[in-house]
Fold each of these.
Amino acid sequence: LNGQKFIDCDFIDCRFENVSLYESMFIDCRFVRCEILGLETQKSEVRLLKLKQCAVLGVNLSLLQGASLFSSPIDSLTECTLKYCTFMNMDFSGFDFSGNELISSSFAEVQLEKSRFNKCILRGTEFFKCNLKQADFGGASGYNVDVLTCELKGAKFTYPDAVNLLYSLGIELE
């Protein structure tokens, strides 16, 4: 898709596989039951997407920010699965990831202060150099948080997954 602008559009039951975006924009669009696989982008921008019951595979969401660093590419996620996705140098402060699956994905240098990951399946998802102050991981499972590089003051974790936080400190429990 070259030079296309999609504003306030609905995409329902769509499949986007190995799509290349060049100088394209998606603003305030809704995706329902869509699959987004292997998206590549150059000079494109995505803002305020609402994703519901979607599968997103292998997408570097950082590249979708475009020139606007003030708005997130994603406005909301509901019952979605994101696998092998990258979030880098982004601001998701206060974002509600609750109830979604983020599998084998990575968050690096992301602002996640006061974000919510309640009951998320985060199998193999890593957090490195992130601001997780007052983030809520209640009922979340499978996450790997680098406690030496992430800011964690006031963050909430639940047992038994919270025990994994000790492993990065070299602490073993018996």
Amino acid sequence: GLSPQLGVALHKRELYMIVASEPLEAYAGLERFRLFTEQYLIIMPPGERHGTITLDGLKQLGKRLPLVRYNGKSQVGIHIGTFLRRHGITASNHLELDNAATVAGMVAAGIGWAMTTPMCLMQNEKAATRVTTLRLERSAPERALFVIARQGEYDQFFKHVCGIASNIVQTEYL
């Protein structure tokens, strides 16, 4: 959720390098390395069925259970809100939170359903083992994580950090 602020700090030379969920295309002179891309998924309270869900099924879900959503000003919250609006998916009630671990925890407690990413879900390992996950049958939105630095500065260090970060993602998360 902090990508815009991190981009400003990088541009102002307050930071040398950042990991962000936005490639910061508005800024010229940056080098970007895509660490990975992940699809959003649906998480449900324990005991719900696993598998896939269609867009129509998601519309029905919005009528049946409250939506536990990310803050609408965060990058993840913006992505999810855009997707839900574009497909006409509404929820009768919703709870808005600032923290991925809390979103997963609320769903694990049976409060409602949420749309999240695997990386966000892993921020609450206990909840991740309790929630039911569903993949969207089609049209699942994606997000990517990038390592970003100013072009032409600390090139070797940038390549070194990208290699280490890529290795960690490959061995620990994928």
